[in-house]
């Protein structure tokens, strides 16, 4: 039977047999998921005896007595087979193929009948949703994902047997249950489901979110009831420690508002209700305007001013965000062209490229056509992408951003550090600028730790040859911290709030500007040596990628030394090899792009000509970095921010010691 089970339509089974009797055969059939569904006719000696009762309890479908009457056996077999085939046909139509639960159409139909036939019984509809199920599929494979779904279905089915529930799988990882509402029954069902499902053997913890709709309006269709339960489940998603949410009027009101926004969005675009506001970016050294970010606002004729937080998430869900982004790109280019035509003065403006835009294969063509339409170049426009887009489809993002970079656009990574950042993302994406979320140092009691994180990220950006913009800067304290950390640019309420394009234009045309370095010219910017005026026979080489740091040290020592500046270790090493006999002391930063201070120290120590030149390391205070630098041959360590008195004393001490050693 195991071999031919798919071809067996019915089984005629005697009870009394040697080796394996009929009862044992029935017990074995019950264990097999295919054989257990095949109809079995049991042969008995007479009607109504105990053997007949036992056989039926073990799963027999019918019985016949001996001696056999061929016509009766044929008739009963034909009826059983027809009933079995009809039941299988119903199962195919009503059941979910993977889990064996009802499919959603069958659930809607049966649930409607139950609710209609029992007007005095209170019911709940419970929606179950597996959080981050796509990640499970991607990590462990679709086969493992299917196993998990079958496991969940089995647990739900087991609960339904004791609680008299109706269960269905309605979508990939979504399940629906209709159950009677009794005291604490719903919460107990959810608690049991969580405990049972959490036992699933997977290294990743399985989180199930539940949404509950207490049926209080029987006039709406069951499909709408299920939608309400699913919406409630979505409310619980992403909230740590919250397993379930009840559908209430606040969810309904929000949906009504969302629908009104959706109904108005196309009209708003046609009637120019969306406005581009600009928020300035500032060079942290000069505090002059160096760029701007384009931000969209909705000025509705009835609702008034609307924050992006009210409509952007809705547009991202319904896909309208792409049309709005194109509008913003076009309007921003129009504004930049106006600056150039009016005063031949401009700063680059960054615009948002949403996650939805990334999946548009025509995105590079759309952007380049908009730029050309206004007589601009790609360098006029910076494109902001979010790090969350990398977690959704990394390869798609890499391909699109690479094409945009090849066209000449500057790429900014927005809100870096607020999501699921990874070093892979920084190494794989052709990014030019990191935008840091200043929520890092909003809380004073976490200041030291967050300052270290900021220092690490800014240092990492320098290693990767990236510029840094800190956004959300609101206090002088934050500005001071960012200056000490060598951040390049800032943006936030401390300097200026987002403003109308006309107001920004007036401010720009009447202000000093500090041009942001074009990322395409970064290599030239970061690979140069500046030789100052010869004021002394002694020469100090200052190696630091930040011009502000070089300027401070130069001011301290320009009366005592001829100052030579290098912007990274590589260009410094090239200069040292040709001028080693002329250099009396080196002031060396540790964290720099291209070649860092540690690598330069190593090269100096390995060179007979350069080994004796004293080096003072200048970097952020830290026991590990200081110890490592001194171990590698540095003569002294000087922490940032600089103190002139300390700096002068350290230099004098090191030079004095060096002259003693030489003598």
Helix and strand layout, with pairings?
Layout: E1 11-14, H1 22-31, E2 40-44, H2 50-57, E3 62-65, H3 70-94, H4 104-117, E4 123-130, H5 133-140, H6 142-163, E5 166-171, E6 174-180, H7 185-197, E7 208-214, H8 222-236, E8 244-246, H9 249-270, E9 274-283, E10 289-300, E11 304-306, H10 308-318, H11 321-343, E12 349-352, H12 355-358, H13 363-373, E13 381-386, H14 388-392, H15 394-406, E14 410-416, H16 423-428, E15 433-437, H17 447-463, E16 467-471, H18 476-484, E17 489-491, E18 499-500, H19 501-509, H20 522-526, E19 529-531, E20 539-543, H21 547-557, E21 562-566, H22 569-579, E22 585-589, H23 597-605, E23 615-620, H24 623-631, E24 636-640, H25 644-662
Parallel strand pairs: 1-2, 2-3, 7-8, 10-12, 12-13, 13-14, 14-15, 15-16, 16-17, 20-21, 20-22, 22-23, 23-24
Antiparallel strand pairs: 4-6, 4-7, 5-6, 9-10, 9-17, 9-18, 10-11, 19-21
Helix pairs in contact: 5-6, 6-7, 11-13, 22-23
Domain Response regulatory: 1-81, 539-655
Protein name: Regulator of RpoS
InterPro entries: CheY-like_superfamily, Cyclic-di-GMP_PDE-like, EAL_dom, EAL_sf, GGDEF_dom, Nucleotide_cyclase, Rev_trsase/Diguanyl_cyclase, Sig_transdc_resp-reg_receiver
């Amino acid at each position: 039977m195991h071999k031919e089970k798919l071809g067996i339509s019915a089984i005629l089974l005697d009870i009394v047999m040697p080796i394996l009797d009929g009862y044992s055969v029935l017990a074995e059939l019950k264990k097999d998921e295919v054989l257990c569904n095949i109809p079995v006719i049991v042969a008995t000696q007479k009607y109504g005896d105990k053997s007949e009762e036992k056989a039926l309890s073990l799963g027999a479908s019918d019985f016949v007595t001996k001696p056999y009457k061929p016509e009766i056996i044929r008739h009963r077999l034909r009826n059983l087979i027809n009933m079995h085939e009809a039941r299988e046909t119903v199962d195919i139509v009503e059941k979910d193929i993977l889990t064996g639960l009802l499919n959603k159409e069958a659930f809607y139909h049966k649930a409607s009948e139950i609710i209609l036939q029992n007007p005095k019984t209170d019911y709940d509809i419970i929606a179950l949703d597996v959080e981050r199920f796509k990640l499970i599929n991607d990590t462990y494979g679709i086969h493992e994902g299917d196993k998990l779904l079958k496991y969940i279905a089995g647990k739900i089915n087991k609960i339904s047997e004791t609680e008299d529930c109706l269960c269905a799988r309605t979508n990939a990882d979504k399940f629906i249950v209709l159950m009677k509402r009794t005291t604490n029954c719903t919460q107990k069902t959810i608690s049991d489901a969580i405990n049972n499902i959490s036992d699933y053997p997977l290294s990743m913890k399985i989180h199930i979110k539940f949404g509950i709709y207490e049926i209080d309006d029987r006039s709406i269709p069951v499909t709408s009831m299920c939608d309400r339960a699913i919406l409630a489940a979505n409310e619980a998603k992403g909230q740590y420690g919250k397993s379930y949410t009840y559908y209430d009027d606040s969810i309904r009101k929000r949906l009504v508002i969302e629908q009104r926004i959706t109904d108005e969005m196309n009209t708003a675009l046609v009637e120019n209700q969306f406005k581009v506001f600009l928020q300035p970016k500032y060079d942290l050294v000069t505090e002059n305007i160096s760029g701007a970010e384009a931000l969209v606002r909705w000025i509705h004729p009835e609702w008034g001013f609307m924050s992006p937080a009210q409509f952007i998430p809705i547009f991202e869900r319904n896909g309208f965000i792409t049309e709005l982004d194109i509008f913003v790109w076009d309007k921003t280019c129009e504004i930049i062209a106006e600056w150039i035509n009016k005063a031949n003065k401009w700063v680059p403006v960054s615009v948002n490229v949403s996650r939805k835009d990334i999946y548009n294969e025509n995105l590079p063509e759309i952007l380049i056509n908009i730029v050309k339409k206004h007589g601009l170049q790609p360098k006029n426009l910076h494109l902001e992408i979010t790090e969350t887009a990398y977690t959704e489809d990394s390869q798609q993002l890499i391909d699109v951003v690479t094409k945009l970079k090849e066209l000449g656009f500057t790429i900014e990574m927005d809100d870096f550090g607020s999501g699921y950042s990874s070093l892979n993302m920084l190494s794989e994406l052709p990014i030019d600028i990191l935008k840091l979320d200043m929520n890092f140092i909003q809380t004073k009691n976490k200041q030291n730790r967050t300052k270290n994180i900021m220092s690490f990220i800014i240092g990492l950006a320098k290693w990767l040859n990236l510029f840094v913009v800190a956004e959300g800067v609101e206090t002088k304290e934050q500005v001071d911290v960012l200056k000490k950390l060598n951040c390049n640019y800032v943006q936030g309420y401390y300097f200026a709030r987002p403003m109308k394009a006309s107001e920004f234009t007036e401010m720009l045309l009447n202000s000093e500007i500090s041009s942001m370095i074009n990322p395409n010219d970064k290599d030239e910017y970061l690979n140069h040596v500046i030789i100052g005026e010869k004021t002394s026979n002694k020469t100090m080489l200052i190696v630091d990628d930040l011009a502000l740091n070089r300027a401070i040290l130069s001011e301290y020592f320009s009366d005592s030394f001829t100052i030579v500046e290098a912007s990274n270790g590589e260009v410094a090493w090239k200069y040292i090899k040709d001028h080693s006999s002329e250099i009396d002391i080196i002031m060396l930063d540790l964290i720099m792009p291209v070649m860092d201070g540690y690598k330069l120290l190593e090269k100096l120590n390995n060179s007979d000509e350069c080994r004796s030149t004293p080096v003072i390391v200048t970097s952020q205070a830290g026991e590990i970095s200081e110890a490592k630098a001194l171990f590698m041959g540095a003569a002294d360590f000087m922490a940032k921010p600089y103190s002139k008195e300390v700096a002068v004393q350290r230099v004098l001490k090191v030079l004095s010691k060096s002259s003693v050693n030489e003598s």
